[in-house]
Amino acid sequence: MTDKRSFLKAAAATAIAGPAIVTSKTARAQAATLRVGSWLPAHHLIVAGIVRPWMQAVEADSEGTVKFDLMSASIGRPPEYYDFCANGAIDVGFGVLGHNPNRFLMTEVMGMPFMSIDPWAGSAASWLAFTKYGARYNEHKGVQLVGTWVHSEPYLHMRGEGLRTIDDLKGKKIRVGSAITGRIIQALGGTPVQLPPTEAQQAMMSGVADGITFPMESIEFFKITPAIKATTKIPGGLLYTDTFWLGVNEKKWASLNPKAQAAMQKHGGMAMALNAAWAWTSGDNLGRAALEKAGVKFNTLPDSDTAKIKAALKPLNDEWLAEAKKRGLPGEEIIRYALDMADRYKAAKRVNVV
After folding, report:
1. Which residues in the chain come in under a pLDDT of 50?
2. CA-wise closest residue to 227 among 194, 201, 188
3. pTM exceeding the 0.90 threshold for the entire prediction
4. CB-based contact 272:50 (threshold 8 Å)
5. Going along the chain, which residue ranges are E strands?
6. How far is it, in rounded angstroms, from Cα 39 to Cα 121?
7. 3-state secondary structure of 150
8. DSSP of 21-54, one letter per residue?
């Protein structure tokens, strides 16, 4: 705790002091080094498959104007990292917007039920919707967002028997990662237990939760596989997705060489969104293999449940639209645009068909 406080005090003092004044000659001679805060192990797919490749591409493309220092130790819980980035404790941060309930609601448009069918569709639509409307959301003070993306298909993984119908969810305690997902589980009859992913394994192994909503990759990575007996797929598309962010402290961003900014944007945005989709899909293949090896039973809810699920979750969409209206935002237009982009960038397409 002492080390964490010391680090935060030093970082805050550096942020208050502001960037040093340099000449164009010294700027060319010395790259800015940005501290990248991380709450995940270095081998997690978000770090190894999304964040680090972005850092490497930016360094190579910035003409020597920027370097990154990926911190090896966490300085706090996952929900704290947005504020760490905004207040200058770290220069670059990433995380899950839903870890801060209702704070980034408009940016989380792809987190609503059945907005997407795969991580390509969801990630692309998330970024494109933010690019088009994000400046009007007024949700990201202190941080220059460089990219957003979503995870792959979530399943309901249970410690006991799998769900035969959605009615079997009633009374079950389900670990969720965001407020939106919690509302979804509650609307379907379950009891949400909101915890960051780093605390999910203990909750599942100890029985604090009866089940968990997660992509298959995350079950294996966070060592939850031994606690799982059954995995259930929800028909009709992705029940939900968490929206991830990567951003730079606003003051630090303003101090950077334009070449560094251009490289960050070039390899962020859509490039980051689609690369994230590949990373999640690859991770899911490994996760499924581990679950199969452990003898986990797989099943899909009956198609007849789809209409029942969508009807139960309609109030969530209505509430999002009401909040958008309250903020003077064109909610219906944003959703139509996001759905159009999701359809345009989905992986499942018919090609070479006469």
Report:
1. 1-3, 7-8, 12-29
2. 201
3. no
4. yes
5. 32-36, 66-70, 92-96, 143-150, 155-158, 173-176, 191-194, 211-214, 230-233, 243-249, 297-300
6. 26
7. strand
8. P--HHHHHHS-EEEEE--SS-TTSHIIIIIIHHH
